[in-house]
Structure formats: structure tokens, C-alpha cells
Amino acid sequence: MTKDAEGVWVVGYGSLIYKPPPCWKYMVNGILHGFLRRFWQSSIDHRGTPNSPGRVATLIPYSEIIQNEAFKKDLDERKTRDVSTGHDLQLLARAYYIPPEHVQSVTEYLDVREQNGYTAHKIHIHLEPPRNEPKELQELLNKLPVDEVTGKHILVSMVYIGTSDNEAFIGPENIQDTASVIAFNEGPSGPNYEYLKLLHDSLIQMANQIGKPLEEIEDSYLDSLVECTESIRSNKNMKPHSDSKSTSVT
């Protein structure tokens, strides 16, 4: 979350993409550099239960990937483009502008929604504004710096990340194991598969709005996870998977 004289910007990469924070006025797609999105975070109060935790998204920074052989192996198996620096890693995210009169209520809402394993971190998002954006939005964006490489306005904001040292962190996990959890788990916020499907569908739509196929922006992890999960769900004899790892996320 980033404050200015008029309001705040909130950036999301998981459920905030398809289930935005309340009271937002403007929504702008963007690209994060230097991170992987992985379903390596456990969920017991949104998409799973303490007895059968679900899986939800978190971000893995490039600085950890190059120091962790398991993380690096996962990237090597899923990358769709050359990755020689952190800037080469890309994933889609979404920024929401919250007017000043709603800042306090939205902050309180997010503090409750993003808890138990998630902590706040600063992140840069390179914005991809819609064509013919409203004049007020254009004025807000023009206050932001422009990246010399991408030519895009950069927003520095706070996001919630389940870091690799939090108690709910699962990964790196075999994608088949992750899919078997997601396929049948449910929590107070609904089926785990719904979370995955809504996020994936939203990212495809966002990529189309930017004018690139999703596979040209991100690695193949999410596509493979959806394919694997749907294959498991199609098997009527498959039993729900459970594990004992527990914590809470969105």
C-alpha cells in the first residue's frame, strides 16, 4: 500500500486480483519483476481448514531463488524465457487506487484478510494503464516515476507476502501434490479450486488487455497447475487430499 496526498494504492497478485479490496476507484494492471508466483502457502481459514489446509499464492523473490537449489530447479522446469537477472522474471499483478475517505476502512479490512503467515513488504509494479484512461487517473499516474528500461510508470507499494520462513510456507512442492490438495479442499471462503481457477482466468484476461499471451509474460507454473488440478478433479474416484500443515491466508 502506498499513500499520496489523495489516497492510497493497493497492489495484489493473488485473490485481490479477482476479489478486489472495497471502495477502490481506479484499477490498473501491471507487471512485477523479480518474483515467482507459487501456490506454496498453506491456508486453514480461507481455502482450507486446520484438518485439511488448502494452498494459496505467495511470491518467491529472485534473491532467494538463486540461493536455493530447490527453488532454482522449480524455475528451470517452468520458465518460458531466458532468466539471467531478476528483472527477467515477470508476473502480472493489479493495482487499486483507494480514495482518502476510505483509506482507514480498507487498511483495517486488509489487515484482517491478509494475516497468519503473510507480512507486509514494499514492491515495485510497472503499470500498464488502460487506453483512454480517465483524466484524473492520468494525473495520478503522471506523478509517478518512469522506468528507464520499460518506459512504464513505477508504483512502489506495500503487498502481503507469505515469505519462505513463515510457519505456513509449504514449498517447494511437487506440482502434482499441490494439485491434489487444491482439487477437493474447501474452506470458509469456498473451494480451493475456485481460488485457482478465478485467478488463472483473471490473469488470462489481464494479459489480453495488455496485448500479450500469458505465456509470454509468466512462466508455465500456473498453466500446469490448473491442468493438473482439473485432471485430478475429472477422476471421480480420486479422494480428497489432506495434510497437517496449518496456518491462515486469503
UniProtKB/TrEMBL annotation:
The keyword Lyase applies. Its EC number is 4.3.2.7. It is an enzyme of class 4 (lyase). It holds the Pfam family ChaC. Keywords: Lyase. It comes from the Eukaryota. This is glutathione-specific gamma-glutamylcyclotransferase. It comes from Kluyveromyces marxianus (Yeast). The lineage of its organism: Eukaryota, Fungi, Dikarya, Ascomycota, Saccharomycotina.
